[in-house]
Design a protein that fits this description.
Strand content: over 45%
Number of strands: 8
Structural class: mainly beta
CATH superfamily of one domain: Nucleic acid-binding proteins
Order of helices and strands: EEEEHEEEE
Radius of gyration: 18 Å
């Protein structure tokens, strides 16, 4: 299908430590969940906070990065594609899971909290099962306005 695109980019916090495992041929794979948050004001003027959870799977060098440097509560940027897998539960019923297959993972916490700014990217022309390229470090600051310190003292 010409003109289609499957791309997901999220910035969120890990709900638990990444779970490292290895495929049958020895490639590292990490499963983790990230929460993105938003808030809005309802009709009655009450502030409502909402979190959305995202399943993420990471392969090869980016998986090792996640396992070594990210922890529960870490702020991370994940870029990849959406994929739905079919599997069977213990009763033989078909189940489906939609997840982000990450091609890029970047830690966004400050250096004092974790390895902030570290990023690993799968080379797009070679796919997730080939060699990986390391992206330059970059400090990006807070992902959500609610995380920026001193917002009440802004001069405008």
């Amino acid at each position: 299908m010409a003109g289609s695109m499957n791309k997901a980019i999220i910035v969120g916090r890990l709900g638990q430590d990444p779970k490292l495992a290895y495929t049958a041929n020895g490639q590292p794979v990490v499963n983790m969940s990230l929460a993105t948050d938003e808030s809005y004001t309802d009709r009655d003027g009450n502030k409502v906070d909402k979190a959305e959870w995202h399943r993420v799977v990471v392969f090869n060098k980016p998986a090792e990065f996640c396992a070594n440097f990210l922890r529960k509560g870490s702020l991370a940027l994940v870029e990849g594609k959406l994929q739905t897998r079919k599997w069977q539960d213990q009763q033989g019923q078909d189940r489906y899971t939609t997840e982000i297959v990450a091609m890029r993972v970047q830690g966004l916490d400050s250096k004092g909290q974790s390895q902030g700014g570290e990023s690993y990217v799968a080379a797009p022309e070679q796919g997730r099962d080939q060699s990986q390229a390391r992206e330059s470090q970059e400090k990006m600051g807070p992902a959500f306005p609610s995380e920026a310190g001193g917002m009440d003292e802004a001069p405008f």
